[in-house]
Amino acid sequence: MSGLIIVRRSRIHGNGVFAARDLPEGTELIEYTGRLITIAEADALYDEIHTGHTFLFTLNEEWIIDGNVGGNDARWINHGCAPNCIPYLHAHPRDRSKDRVIIETLRDVEAGEELQYDYGISFEVPYTARLKKIWACRCGTPRCTGTMLKSGTHERLAG
User: What CATH number is attached to the domain comprising 149?
Assistant: First the structure.
């Protein structure tokens, strides 16, 4: 998978990951790595809901990958409302702590294009205007929703 991506400054946010060459749809790019922690540990360590920034990737109902510690370049892939990549869970048949997340292209990607996937962020609180602003999306695509937060029941609760 090496030689497929490069990290540099992004117009979307901070660092970003870009295609180093033309990449066909379905290309495995990188595994999302970092320290493996439980959801309870993540809740105790981080107040991500109020920061608008996270390197935490929910692996399954028990485990989270903490890209803040031991993370690789996958943590720099930005959110996009019209993503060109998708994270796939590779579930271990017996041990959920050994599940893995691989990022791959969702469509053909041109060299130099910034790689993005939909973060799918959701919280168990009402989505207020303040929270939506904290989690503002800056992808700039015509289909941009303006927030990285997933709509649904929480959106309706915020009214």
Answer: 2.170.270.10
Residue 7, strand partner residues: 17
**Structure-token match 């989270």, residue found:** 64
pLDDT-based confidence at 1, cuts 50/70/90? low
With contact defined as beta carbons under 8 Å apart, do 65 and 41 qualify? Answer: no
CA distance 67 to 54: 9
Nearest of 52, 49, 57, 44 to residue 119 by alpha carbon: 57
Residues 37-85 pLDDT 10s: 999 999 899 877 777 678 999 999 999 999 999 999 999 999 999 999 9
Please give the tally of structural domains in the chain.
1
**C-alpha distance across the termini of the chain, in Å:** 45
- Nearest-CA neighbor of 57 among 67, 72, 69? 67
Residue-wise pLDDT tens digits, 20-33: 999 999 999 999 99
Range of the domain at 54: 5-158
- Report the DSSP beta bridge partners of residue 18: 6, 114
- Nearby residues of 53 by Cβ (< 8 Å), 6 or more positions away: none
* DSSP conformational letter for 24: -
Which among 83, 72, 151, 73 has a CA at the least distance from the CA of 117? 83
